[in-house]
Design a protein that fits this description.
The protein is α+β, with helices and mostly antiparallel strands. It has 14 helices and six strands. It has two domains: 137 residues, no CATH class; 115 residues, no CATH class.
């Protein structure tokens, strides 16, 4: 049997053959009306929006295999809750870049799930307006390892504790910053302390992307939200190294909170769905 994807000579033919091949599988037939509608909608969208990206992306063997063998089933699962009458063609400004991104990240479960969820959001008339085109670029600028850490921050509606460890120089208001954006990361299964030197840079990235805000001028008034700081290994090591007459290691309380843009992003990319099983560290809930 000739591989319909390999036989295709143009971007339109690639996509058309791909959708036909996927639609002929028993899995596609068993999925029912929603899947059929999703296939028609996606086929139309890809033909309209993905060119000339299709020829490039489907030239990648692993991506070609994914779209030929798994994409239809994965997309059907994401779109299963959309009533057929609410299924629409997603905007090309979302669908085109999202499919391109999916071609390069389909082997990373968290990022793949975000792209698929964003496509499903864009296909649902009831919530399609929340599928902002900028969300594709945000997914592209987040590493897969960040997703389990970002998710609980974006799902939390309140202020969350964060601190800056400083070296107070004994003069009014003078200090050196020893560690910024310090959060009590812990293993979600064992509760054990996790040291992640790259986490402050992740926070800077999320602030840059407009997903969260961080300030050290506003903090949570309940003291227990910051009780973890003095027990952390890094804080104790810094105090042992720098504490001496005339200077002392202290910490400045702060807070981080999701933005309205961050909340919309979390909803559109499926962060409110149950996360994949694992033992990724996460910030403590505020």
């Amino acid at each position: 049997m000739v591989d319909p994807v390999s036989a295709a000579k143009s971007g339109v033919e690639v996509v058309g053959a791909l959708m036909k091949a996927a639609g002929d599988t028993p899995e596609a037939k068993e999925a029912g009306k929603n899947l059929g509608q999703a296939a028609v909608t996606l086929s139309k969208t890809i033909n309209n929006a993905l060119l000339p990206l299709a020829a490039l992306n489907f030239g990648i063997e692993k991506a070609k295999a994914y779209f030929a063998q798994r994409f239809q089933e994965d997309m059907a699962a994401k779109a299963a809750s959309i009533p057929p009458e609410e299924m629409i063609e997603p905007k090309s400004s979302v669908a085109g870049p999202a499919l391109q991104g999916l071609a390069f990240t389909h082997e990373e479960p968290d990022l793949k799930a975000m792209y698929l969820s964003l496509l499903a959001t864009a296909m649902d008339r009831r919530v399609s307006r929340s599928a902002h085109p900028a969300f594709v670029e945000i997914i592209k600028q987040v590493d897969a390892s960040e997703v389990p850490l970002l998710r609980p921050i974006l799902l939390n509606p309140g202020l969350q504790p964060i601190v800056e460890i400083r070296l107070s120089l004994g003069q009014a208001g003078q200090f050196n910053t020893l560690q910024t954006h310090y959060v009590g990361l812990a293993n979600s299964q064992t509760g054990e302390e996790v040291d992640m030197p790259e986490f402050p840079a992740m926070i800077d990235n999320w602030v840059r992307l407009g997903l969260i805000e961080v300030t050290y001028d506003r903090f949570i008034t309940q003291e227990h939200f910051y009780a973890w700081v003095e027990n952390r290994k890094l804080y104790q090591e810094l105090k042992a190294k720098h504490d001496r007459p005339g200077q002392a290691v202290i910490f400045q309380k702060g807070s981080m909170v999701r933005t309205a843009f961050g909340l919309q992003f979390a909803r559109a990319v499926g962060m409110f769905d149950p996360p994949p099983a694992g033992q990724a560290p996460k910030p403590p809930a505020a």
